[in-house]
Amino acid sequence: MSSNVQVRVASWQKDNADLRRIRETVFIAEQAVPPELEWDAEDVEAVHFLAVDGDYAIGTARLLPDGHIGRVSVLKDWRGLKVGEALMTAVINEAERRGLKEQMLSAQVHATAFYERLGFTVVSGEFLDAGIPHVEMKRTSK
């Protein structure tokens, strides 16, 4: 990962343009997720995270008050550079700081190995979400 990449807690209001640009690029444009499924009321109460390369936002994720992690996305040119790992580490650390001992997420099936490396285990069968195969995964903090 380039040494310029950092992850910070973002503001849904202040960083809205960057959060939307990344999620629209990854989920709506690349993966054909319908916009009405991408944007939901939970964005307002979630803790959002931005990965930035210098001052350019390249990845995002969100943490819900119940410990659900979602909308993990990294722009194509930065994939494979450990940006997703840095994002997830920041989200897990924040969840633990808030006393959320259990973190859950719905993973796209092709990404399960990535999440397993971070301590998540598959806890459901496969299901379709926005037409994409997913599984539920869970991680319990020590």
From TrEMBL:
Query: Which UniProt keywords are listed?
Result: Acyltransferase, Transferase
Please indicate which superkingdom the organism of origin belongs to.
Bacteria
Residues folding into a coiled coil are: none
Which N-terminal residues, if any, form the signal peptide?
A: none
**Is the keyword Acyltransferase assigned to this protein?**
yes
Please give the Gene Ontology molecular function terms for this protein.
acyltransferase activity, transferring groups other than amino-acyl groups
Q: Which InterPro entries match?
A: Acyl_CoA_acyltransferase (IPR016181), Bact_Acetyltransf (IPR050832), GNAT_dom (IPR000182)
Locate the N-acetyltransferase domain: which residues? Answer: 5-142
One Pfam match, by short name? Acetyltransf_10
SUPFAM superfamilies xrefs: Acyl-CoA N-acyltransferases (Nat)
Q: What is this protein called?
A: Acetyltransferase
| Species this protein is from | Pseudomonas turukhanskensis
Q: Give the classification, highest ranks.
A: Bacteria, Pseudomonadati, Pseudomonadota, Gammaproteobacteria, Pseudomonadales
